[in-house]
User: Fold this.
Amino acid sequence: MQLTLPTVLTLGRLVLVPVLVLLFYLPFEWAGPAAAVVFALGGLTDWLDGYLARRLNQSSSFGAFLDPVADKVMVAIVLVMLVQANPYIWMALPAMVIIGREIVISALREWMAEIGQRAQVAVSSLGKIKTVAQIAALLLMLYHDPIGALPTFLVGVALLYLAAVLTLYSMVVYLRAGWSAANRAEEEAASP
Assistant:
């Protein structure tokens, strides 16, 4: 397997995770903003690797597997760190919804691939909106410090709740599509 530039960028996003964790827990005033910068860099590489894979015609099955893994690892770890730093139910609820949904949808996609219906649970535009809200929320919450009169952490929490609602809605959409596709596959298998 040849490593392409998009795949190297995706691997770089995974390498950023321990750097992000280290920065988050440093006992310095600049630690939160520095962690936010690393998270933003991860978000930028997420956009850039997909763009370059399409633009340079360097899509690969390994890259298609690794990209969502890198995204989910980074998001889940940031959510866990934020819940640990803010151990309240109002913080744990959206984190549980987002992480739980990712596990359910990953399992659904794997199952749908097994029955030859993977395309039925492809990423939708709603999923992309959810991702933007989620990334913006986590970025603002990592930064934490107000920017002028803007209470970044509170805006981040509001966006995190928006992302959680969109997460639940998109999960229902995916599960309905999966259910329909599974029923069709069973009917086709049963017919002579």
Remarks:
- Residues 1-85 form one domain.
- The CA atoms of residues 110 and 118 lie 8 Å apart.
